[in-house]
Amino acid sequence: MQQVLGLEPLLKLKSEGHKDQECYCHQIFIDPDDELLVPTVQQLVERSFHSNHLKLAEVPSCFIIQMPRFGKSYKMFEKIIPSLELDITDLLSESPRGCYVCSELATQECEDCFKDKLFSKTGLKQFCDICWHQVHSQASGRRHVSLALRCPTGYEGGRWAGVPRERMQLFAVLCIETSHYVSFVKYGPQNSDWMFFDSMSDRHGGESGYNIPSVTACPEVGQYMDIPPAKLAKQSGRDMAGVAKRQFCDAYMYLYQNPRMAVYK
Predict the structure, then answer these.
(1) Structure pTM?
(2) Strand pairing partners for 54?
(3) pLDDT tens across 69-103, in order?
(4) Which of 173, 170, 168, 169 is nearest to 67 (CA)?
C-alpha cells in the first residue's frame, strides 16, 4: 500500500510497555470460544484488542480488519456477521469513556468482566468508582483487578455531558472462496444497498483469452443482516439467496471509513 498507492500507515496502535506501532490493517488474533458461533465484526475487534492489550492512539480515517482465516484451508468461523457500524470509542486510548452501568465518566476498566460470562458475553467494561464497588461486591467479582483510566483533558472535575461516540461505517468487504478475490461495496444507507464485483465473472476464449468482470446489485445481502445469530448459524450457506453466501461465509477483510477524519488524512 505504501509502494503502490503511496499511502501512509492507516493505523497507530498503542500497547502497554511498547512504542506506538503504525500499520495498514489489523489482523484478528483471538482465543477459540465454543460459545461464539457466529460473531459480529464488532465482537471480533473488541476481543482481539482485549487479548493483545491494544488501543488505538487516534481515530483512523480508514480501518481495515483481516479475519482469522488462512486461505481456504482454515477458517475460525463458518460465518461472520458484518457490523454496518463499528463503535471504536472504547478502543481509543485518549477518549473519555462512559460507565457501563450509569453512563457517568468511567474511571476504571475491568478486563476480568470482559472475560467473565456472569457479567457479559461481549463488550469492553468500564465503571465509575461507585458502580465499580457495587458491581464487584459479590464474591465472584472481588478477585477482579481494575485498570485506572486516565481522565482526558477537559473532563476533569466532573464536567461531563456524555460520551461522544466514535463510529466508523462499513463501506466494503473483500472475500475469497478458492482462487480469486471478489468484493462487496456499500453504496447507500439501506441494508440492501450493496454491489458485488467479480473480476472473473466470465471468460472469453481459452488460455489465450481474457476474463470478463461484472458489477451487479445484490440487495439480497441485506435480508440476512437482521437475522439473530443463533438462527443464522443454522442457515446453510448453499441455501442463502444470490451471492449473500460469499459475504457471510467467505469474508477476508472488512473496510471501514470515518468520513470526518478522511477530510484531514
Answers:
(1) 0.87
(2) 15
(3) 877 778 889 899 999 999 999 899 888 888 888 88
(4) 173
